[in-house]
Amino acid sequence: MKVAGLGFKRDVTLASLREALDAAGGPDGLAAVATVSDKAETAALKSLAGELNIPIRPVSADVLAGIATSTHSEFIKAKFGTGSLAEAAALAAAGRGARLVSMRTVSQDRTATAAIAEGDGE
């Protein structure tokens, strides 16, 4: 299962989410998008998932904490206990044996990040 993990600011736009996802490798073959649970109902994310016709997989902050990531943001580490929200969400949602196929990328306006992982979906 291929999953895009997305991290973003509350005022993110659909265009910024698309840009970050495209920079991470694009939507081809994605089974879902994932983010921290408290942002799963964000309008721009729901719009993106609707355009792609894939579900949003919310991941609890407790699950994200401690997931080892390839990239590191001190702000995200302090807030969520992981180096990259996008990478951790992608890895958690992709399931057992998940591995990053695209490390975190950032939109030009710095409001969205995306990473892609593949795993067995379990």
Can you describe what's shown?
The protein is of the alpha/beta class and 122 residues long. The chain has one domain: CobE/GbiG C-terminal domain (Nucleotidyltransferase, domain 5), CATH 3.30.420. 34% of the residues lie in helices and 25% in strands. The chain has 5 helices and 5 strands. The chain has helices at residues 14-24, 43-52, 61-64, 74-80, 85-94; strands at residues 2-8, 32-36, 56-59, 99-106, 112-118. The chain has a 5-stranded mixed β-sheet.
Strand content is 25-35%
Number of strands: 5
User: Could you give me the name of the CATH homologous superfamily?
Assistant: CobE/GbiG C-terminal domain
Radius of gyration: 12 Å
What is the fold named in CATH at topology level? Answer: Nucleotidyltransferase, domain 5
CATH class: Alpha Beta
Question: How would you write the strand order of the largest sheet?
Answer: 3-2-1-5-4
Domain count, please report it. Answer: 1
- Principal-axes shape call: globular
- How is the biggest beta sheet arranged? 5 strands, mixed
> What is the CATH architecture assignment?
2-Layer Sandwich
Structural class by SSE content: alpha/beta
- Measure the end-to-end span: 9 Å
Write a short abstract of this structure:
The protein has 122 residues and is an alpha/beta fold. The protein has 5 helices and 5 strands. Helix content is 34%, strand content 25%.
